[in-house]
Amino acid sequence: MAITEQERLLRAKASSLRYRRTNKGRLNRLKNMAAYRLRDVAAYNAKAAAHIHKLKDDVFRAYGGWVCACCKETEKSFLTFGHMLNNGAAERRNLPGRGRNGNIALWRRLRREGYPPGYRIECYNCNCGSFRNGGICPHERIA
Ligand SMILES: [Zn+2]
Ligand SMILES: [Zn+2]
Fold this sequence. Notes:
Blueprint lengths: L4 H18 L1 H16 L1 H22 L16 E5 L4 H6 L5 H14 L6 E5 H9 L5 H5 L1
The structure holds zinc ion (ZN) (2 copies).
């Protein structure tokens, strides 16, 4: 006797649950990942770095591009990700990973959330300036 579509789905679900319970899939995946990583650590690291580079580029472009929102500096090595509410450190503490990693976790979240407002690209000068000046860069006060 032929089984109904519903029965077929139920059976497929049961078998996938069985599979997951034995944890074979997970173990195999972990083993494959470790093997892949060991085969070529440099390539693995390069790939991870490229991935982060892409993430950073996406985020910077989404928040106005590689230019300081205040003084229009465009030298990439001077630019950083600024929190307009001046609570970067507090925000990073709520995310997995600290410091540099904290920023990466934040960028992932922002990309996932469609780049909500509250952030901007700024150079280190303007970043420090606004931090010391209560959230407003001294450049803006002069203007
Ligand atoms: Zn600047
Ligand atoms: Zn400035």
